[in-house]
Design brief:
392 residues, globular, mainly alpha, 17 helices, Growth Hormone, Chain: A
């Protein structure tokens, strides 16, 4: 099995899990009888683990040089944690279970990113093509889970017995996590540094540079704006009376658009600066949430907003990975990735999830939530304009 195949399969299954959780965790929790405020709190708790956990794992990785071991350990513990959902119904029990799942699951991606970038010698072209397999995994499970949800919805209407989507959700998650574990067993570390050669350089100066602070805060604002989408998009479509499979189709349309960006990412980096690409991504995101708020009932307009995901996520993510890779030295990579993912996706994601839950009002505040998200993304774009230009 080639290096490309081994790395791509790990991305495939890692993001396949995200393709299940991102659209359908809200449906799973809603079926448990939780309110939108409780959903927001659970999403915030789940996301808050990303604030500290990645940094703790990264410190261990930088000191030991054992990124691969941490990836495998994270996969095992995430699987065991997710399996507990079979037997839980209580609000706090589910919240704690999901928090532990996220604690271990977040150990995987920063180390996988470092392992991949080092393996392909930080080539943006090869990295983007490996990363697009993560997008394919997202699509496959998002569409499949949407079909499963539709099946159970129809069955519950035509039968006295209500067959729950909740058990199917947990089964699909466990299968994806098990396949992720198997895929990590095929990975090989490019090189293992001896303890004597590992120099854990201070990262403080890099973090306090104005260039990083602007990039970091803008990233947090971007993730805050994603709160209504990540937490409530499936319920949003349900309330607008879209069929169950529409969730998977709309989500997959966005991921298909991001795949095209990953394929042609190297062309963007050749012709535009990172600053230009980051500002463009944030501005498009602001427009995206505005259109969702105003024209969510139009399937065509909603499809257009999903195509904008190519800029909102794929282009911003690719540019961010190159930014992090170039900003931090080799022995700071794991901590740099962890601080970025923990801060941006952890702090930003937790705040966004909680605000979305507070604004949603069981669907009555959906428009307000997306309008607020649009304003936050616009603020991020304006802030990014002050980013000092990098050396081309």
């Amino acid at each position: 099995m080639s290096l490309f195949t081994r790395l791509s399969s790990s991305y495939f299954f890692y993001f396949a899990i995200l393709g299940l959780i991102s659209p359908y965790l809200s449906v799973f929790l809603d079926s448990k009888g939780f309110t939108s405020l409780e959903l927001g709190e659970i999403f915030a708790i789940l996301t808050a683990t990303k604030i500290i956990a990645p940094s703790l794992w990264a410190i261990l990785a930088d000191k030991t040089g054992q990124q691969l071991l941490i990836i495998r350990l994270g996969a095992v513990l995430a699987l065991l944690s997710f399996m507990l959902l079979f037997w839980l119904d209580n609000y706090w029990a589910i919240s704690i279970c999901l928090a532990f799942f996220s604690l271990f699951w977040t150990a995987i991606l920063p180390q996988l990113e470092v392992l991949t970038l080092n393996s392909v010698r930080r080539s943006s072209k090869i990295y983007a093509r490996i990363r697009l397999w993560g997008s394919l995994g997202f699509i496959v499970l998002a569409i499949f889970a949407g079909q499963v949800m539709t099946f159970y919805q129809e069955k519950s209407l035509s039968s006295v017995t209500n067959t729950p989507f909740t058990n199917a959700f947990v089964v699909m998650g466990c299968v994806a996590l098990l396949l992720l574990l198997f895929s990590t067993l095929s990975l090989k570390s490019r090189h293992v540094l001896s303890t004597a050669k590992i120099q854990v350089l201070s990262i403080k100066d890099k973090l306090l540079e104005s260039r990083f602070l602007i990039f970091f805060i803008a990233g947090i604002l971007l993730q805050i704006s994603f709160g209504p989408f990540y937490g409530f998009f499936a319920l949003f479509l349900r309330d607008l009376e879209y069929p169950g499979f529409a969730v998977g189709l709309f989500i997959s349309l966005g991921v298909l658009a991001e795949i095209l960006v990953f394929i042609f990412a190297s062309s963007f980096f050749k012709h535009f600066s990172l600053k230009t690409l980051l500002i463009f991504s944030l501005a498009v995101t602001a427009l995206r949430w505005l259109l969702v708020a105003l024209y969510g009932e139009s399937a065509w307009m909603l499809a257009l907003t999903q195509l904008m995901h190519a800029a909102s996520f794929a282009l911003f993510h690719s540019a961010s990975m190159i930014f992090i890779s170039s900003h931090f030295s080799a022995c700071q990579q794991s901590r740099g990735q962890a601080i970025y993912l923990g801060g941006v996706y952890g702090v930003g994601g937790a705040i966004g999830a909680y605000l979305a839950g507070a604004l949603w009002l069981d669907g009555l505040g959906a428009t307000t939530a997306f309008l607020t998200a649009s304003v936050v993304a616009l603020l991020a774009a304006l802030l990014m304009m002050f980013l000092p230009k990098e050396n081309r």
